[in-house]
Amino acid sequence: MPASWNELDSRAISTAKILAADAVERVGNGHPGAAISLAPAAYALYQRHLHLDPSDPHWLGRDRFILSSGHSSLTQYLQLYLAGMGVELEDLKALRTEGALTPGHPEFGHTPGVELTTGPLGTGLASAVGFAMAERFTHGLLDPDTPHGQSIFDHCVYVIAGDGCLQEGVSAEASSLAGTQKLGNLIVLWDDNRISIEGDTDIAFSEDVLKRYESYGWHIQRVDWLSEDGSYVEDVQALDEALAAARENTEQPSIIALRTIIGWPTPEKSNTGGIHGAKLGEEALRGLKSALGADPDAHFAVDEEAVAHSRRQFAQRAQTLRAQWDQRFEEWKEANPQRAALLERLLQGELPEDWEKALPEFPAGKAIATRSASGKVLNAIAPVLPELWGGSADLGGSNNTFLNGFTSFLPEGTYSRSFEADPYGRNLHFGIREFAMACAMNGIAADGLTRVYGGTFFVFSDFMRGAVRLAALMDLPVTYVWTHDSIGVGEDGPTHQPIEHLASYRAIPNLAVIRPADAAETVQAWKNILEQHHPAALVLSRQNLPNPARGEGNELADAQGVARGAYILADCEDTPEVIFMATGSEVAPTLEAHRLLKAEGIASRVVSVPCLEWFESQDEAYRESVLPSAVRARVAVEAGIALPWYRWVGEAGRIVSLEHFGESVDGARLFEKYGFTPENIAARARESIAAAH
After folding, report:
1. Residue 578 and residue 489: Cα distance in Å, rounded?
2. Strands 654-656 and 219-224: what pairing?
3. Separation of alpha carbons 28 and 25, rounded Å
4. Chain segment 537-586, per-residue pLDDT in tens
5. Class assignment of domain 562-692?
6. How far apart are the first and last CA of the chain?
7. What does the H/E/C string look like for 259-275?
8. Which of 147, 391, 602, 634 has the least CB density, counted as fewest CB within 10 Å?
9. Which residues contact 116 (CB under 8 A, 6 or more apart)?
10. Which fold has domain 355-539?
11. Those residues with Cβ within 8 angstroms of residue 14's Cβ, 6 or more apart along the chain or in another chain
12. What is the pLDDT averaged over residues 494-506?
């Protein structure tokens, strides 16, 4: 045991093991096994290595801890309890019940001390890479003159991951990226218990994991609590030394393979899949308590002396760390008043005064792809928003996500013929790793100080979906730049032409999907995204789109209405006979259809709908002003499946959509072939008018 370890520490660990079993037994479901066997490791990590402040879970100088194996939520809840960080015994008793601080999986913003929502395996580890990247970038933003590792803004990101996390492909994507980035502030503790729900992991997971991580460029260590002779000793001293060595290695991310027996020392059920995801049962529960020297008939019996010791020890250590940090922080603020002002702005989540003056204007009448317009917006605002950074999954040139004149976020010594390496650069290169990119963006956003964006082709957003859902669940201000948005991709063919994707992503609660019609709408989309703190996806065209004159004196309204999600773009003098709703590239032919009907004496209204989610959030009066219920003839026009539009068109409405995949043909030809023409749109309007009467 570590020199400072005493009997009370051992008793605190036994208390954690018993509480883990009792909590799951009480609710009748959950994952007790890893929480039982990981109790010594988690206790050592919290009590001896993590820099945390129980009085301030959001302390800027804290380390970040991510429980990637989120099903083992008790592993973290028990340490928060023993550390006095806001989880109490009653919360443990309420595990997995309504309103509890202890939900089935850790939830961001719900439980003090939880940095990230985890549960989908691998995503926690992958997001931790983003946390580690954010730490380095923040250092460069606020304290670039201090050597890395010596700044008040430097900290470590600790992860507990399980076998399942390392089986998921996203962990491989992200770990490879972490090795390339030489994220020496990232430390992963792998619970190598070799058990999953189906039993022994050898049936599906047999590679040498540490060799794999060595090839990624990681610092590798192994700590075996299970000896070759079958004896099992929870050697906390060996783990303590490994954790210290990992923290000292600032040039590589670190992984420690900790060989454990899941559920130890539970009789009969240790080292079996039966203890992974189910309660122990009365007999095994009594056996565990007896093995730990506790009363087998007592439930939620707490060693009060041990708990008081662990809380006192944690608080004393935190007080020392915090006092040292606070002094250095005050010295930094005094020496860096401008950067201190920037930090305060970032902590408040505010944008610089008059920042919007940097937004570009695009000349009317000059066609431009919305992906290009988006890139020009990013490059125009980057100088006034130093907290803005991002990149692409190897498609920066196509997504127009590169910030010209700024360096690339790459470790010292990295050579590239194309990009200037800088450990604090603002251009991110994720490689062809869409899922890892999205997870890393979640970590960056959850870290809280900066604004991140990431791009790929819209069709490849499929690979990101799990992470996008988590971003929406956590309400993180990540921005996705999804280009090549439709059959307009053309000759690349159906594999690259998104059809169902708009509907699919609109189905995710709390995600704003914005498909601007032109450059003017793209500008306003970016403005609205940055003025909010929510997840948003920009869906942008590959092909050039018209950029017509707007505003006073013109046929078309200005683009300010983008913030409302839908607005009247073109109107008639009287009540319209039919209302058109369109998004993105389909707005232009819809405007032409509006003009065709006008020539026939049919009054119509064109509503541009860049974001259904923003429109749905408006009050009823505004929605009624745009889409008056008295006008039953409606036509929705969008180059994707019709699913999202049925609620808006009503029984008399018509939808010009795609209910099939595309083909490898010129994009303009496909729009014509599939009916996205002014003539067909106008014809559908006439049908709707007839149906409404």
Report:
1. 31
2. unpaired
3. 5
4. 999 999 999 999 999 999 999 999 999 999 999 999 999 999 999 999 99
5. alpha beta
6. 84
7. ECCCCCCCCCCCCCHHH
8. 147
9. 66, 106, 108, 124, 127, 128, 131, 442, 443, 446, 474
10. Rossmann fold (3.40.50)
11. 292, 293, 294, 303, 306
12. 98
Token pair listed for 619 = 């009050």
Quote the tokens at residue 76. Answer: 């973290």
Q: What share of the chain is helix, strand, coil (3-state, %, to 5)?
A: 45, 15, 40
Beta bridge partners of 547: none
Instruction: Report helix, strand or coil for 219.
Output: strand
d(CA 557, CA 444): 37
Between the alpha carbon of residue 659 and those of residues 191, 457, 498, 654, 683, the distances in Å are 47, 20, 11, 14, 19
Strand 427-429 versus strand 451-457 pairing type: unpaired
Name the band, by pLDDT with cuts 50, 70 and 90, for residue 408: very high
Rounded to an integer, the average pLDDT of 662-691 is 98
Are domains 7-319 and 355-539 of this chain identical in fold?
Answer: yes
- pLDDT tens digits, one per residue of 622-633: 999 999 999 999
Q: Which of the residues 25, 434, 613, 638 is marked catalytic?
A: 434
Average pLDDT of the residues in 149-164: 97
pLDDT of residue 406 exceeding 90: yes
Q: Which of 52, 107, 60, 36 is nearest to 85 (CA)?
A: 52
Q: How many other C-beta atoms are found inside a 10 Å radius of the C-beta of residue 370?
A: 29
Look up 387 and say whether it is catalytic: no
Question: What are the structural domain ranges in the chain?
Answer: 7-319, 355-539, 562-692
Torsion angle of alpha carbons 167, 169, 173, 175, nearest 10°? -10
Helices 39-48 and 73-83: crossing angle in degrees, nearest 10, is 40
The dihedrals phi and psi of 235, each to the nearest 5 degrees, come to: -80, 85
Give the domain 7-319 fold: Rossmann fold (3.40.50)
pTM of the predicted protein model: 0.98
Tens-digit pLDDT profile for residues 16-68: 999 999 999 999 999 999 999 999 999 999 999 999 999 999 999 999 999 99
Residues 6+ apart with CB under 8 A from 117: 70, 105, 106, 107, 108, 470, 473, 474
Query: Which pLDDT tens digit goes with each residue over 56-93?
Result: 999 999 999 999 999 999 999 999 999 999 999 999 99
Task: List the one residue out of 388, 376, 540 whose CA is nearest residue 477.
Answer: 388
**Residue labelled with tokens 């189905």:** 507
Question: Would the pLDDT of 657 be above 90?
Answer: yes
Beta strand 536-539 pairing with 512-514: parallel
| Residue position matching structure tokens 């990009």 | 419
Q: What is the pLDDT of residue 1?
A: 67
If you count DSSP H runs as helices and E runs as strands, how many of each does the chain have, helices first? 25, 20
